[in-house]
Design goal:
TIM Barrel; two-stranded antiparallel sheet; 12 strands; 13% strand; binds erythose-4-phosphate; binds phosphoenolpyruvate; binds manganese (II) ion
Length: 415
């Protein structure tokens, strides 16, 4: 890694007005943040992280921005995927390589079968923070919020937020990135994670030298704001607006077309094709009803966003035997709905965002192997949401390729 705090030449600390903008963004209300029991230690850790090594280089991030502009224009497809929650225990070379391998195979299927180049972003090297629907679990303990905050075991000690975990997360992210670089994939894989834990995300920032004066995060190439932290006047949106990195925004079925346009104007202030990826996660029952007007209004705004489908987060349910799961049939149905909407409106169905692993887990129902509820306990290993296993992921990529081939051929007048 060539990077250091000095390798950009311009540190955030040297630019007082941008540092002021960061402070103003972070002063806004922030959802889903842990209450550190020792705020003094938390502040010390944030200070230590300010001197931490970057995980990615700005050159790589700028290259990704170029690739995403091609996606926004309809000339490429964005594949994003990986664990729901990376864990410190699973930050091993075999696990990372298995996930990289499945993403590589998915990309090869989609590119080979559709004829469109594929840009791949792994949920990797930093996907350690989780938003939760409830602050307490069924036992009344603080919810597990990802390894960067606390530990999943069902004890009060394990669930108490520990700021030192941010230092461990940074070290693990650096190790994971080293594995990715060593894996030396022919197509360089980019990394992204949810921009959630603001104490962590504010730490490794530089003044970007590649475009309008903004900040570059050194923690990932791509960052997205989640469904639970996208309050229009909240800290996450205000902070994401300052970044030069390409940004994703998850949008669920409660978002209105007017709000969608407002998000686009805030998060793509300079009108850069591909700067913003709108990640539609409507659920298979709502996508055909809710998405069309959003796409129409955003398209009319003139911003060239990437339309990406997350067909998993709107389709989560609890199985009869108590496992958080998803059915492949629902995932495929949401994808079909997403492609139908874009085909009807003449817009580019630009990508998918999925939770997958290269391992042979039994977390999602269905697929060619016909996983049933009674199969789930056999290899249910996720730390948070259920992931498609390797076979289910490859099967899904054939479906995506078939849908994409239909859209792509139509676009170019092929049969
Ligand atoms: O990926 C994230 C989950 O969907 C999110 O953490 C919510 O999960 P929960 O409903 O189990 O809290
Ligand atoms: C929490 C996630 O998604 P969403 O914000 O769409 O619920 C996620 O991607 O893991
Ligand atoms: Mn998830």
């Amino acid at each position: 890694m060539t990077g250091s705090r000095r390798w950009r030449g311009t540190s955030l600390e040297a630019d007082h007005s941008l540092a002021g903008e960061v402070a103003a963004a972070l002063a806004k209300p922030a959802a889903q943040q842990p209450l550190w029991p020792d705020p003094v230690r938390a502040a010390e850790v944030v200070g230590l992280l300010h001197g931490a090594e970057p995980i990615v280089t700005p050159e790589e991030t700028a290259r990704l921005s170029g690739r995403l502009a091609a996606v926004a224009r309809g000339d490429a497809f964005l594949l994003q995927g990986g664990d729901c929650a990376e864990t410190f225990a699973d930050n091993t070379e075999p696990h990372l390589r298995a996930n990289l391998r499945v993403l590589g195979r998915m990309a090869a299927v989609i590119a080979g079968e559709s004829g469109l180049p594929v840009v791949t972003i792994a949920r990797m090297a930093g996907q350690y923070a989780k938003p939760r629907s409830k602050p307490l679990d069924a036992l009344g303990l603080p919810a597990y919020r990802g390894d960067i905050v606390n530990s999943p075991e069902s004890t009060l000690v394990a669930r108490t937020p520990d700021p030192d975990r941010m230092l461990r997360a940074h070290a693990h992210a650096a190790d994971a990135m080293a594995v990715i670089r060593r894996a030396g994939t022919a197509e360089e894989i980019y990394v992204g994670h949810e921009l959630l834990l603001l104490d962590y995300e504010q730490s490794v920032l530089f003044v970007d030298g590649y475009g309008p004066r903004r900040l570059a995060s050194g923690l990932a190439h791509f960052l997205w704001v989640g469904e639970r932290t996208r309050q229009l006047d909240g800290a996450h949106i205000a902070f994401a607006r300052l970044l030069a990195n390409p940004i994703g925004l998850k949008i669920g079925p409660t978002v209105t077309p007017e709000q969608a346009v407002e998000y686009v104007e805030r998060l793509d202030p300079h009108g850069t094709p591909g700067q913003l990826t709108l990640v539609s996660r409507m659920g298979y029952q709502r996508v055909r009803e809710v998405l069309p007007t959003i796409v129409e209004k955003v398209t009319a705004s003139g911003h060239e966003v990437i339309w990406q489908c997350d067909p998993v987060h709107g389709n989560t349910r609890i199985s009869g035997n108590g496992h958080k799961t998803r059915h492949v049939a629902h995932i495929v149905d949401e994808l079909r709905g997403f492609f139908e909407v874009h085909r009807r409106l003449g817009t580019h169905p630009g990508g998918i965002h999925v939770e997958v692993t290269g391992e042979d887990v039994t977390e999602c129902l269905g697929g060619a192997a016909g996983i049933t509820e009674s199969d789930l306990p056999a290899r249910y290993r996720t730390a948070c949401d259920p992931r498609l296993n390797a076979d289910q992921s490859i099967e899904l990529s054939f479906t995506v390729a078939e849908l994409l081939r239909g859209s792509w051929n139509r676009r170019w007048g092929r049969t």
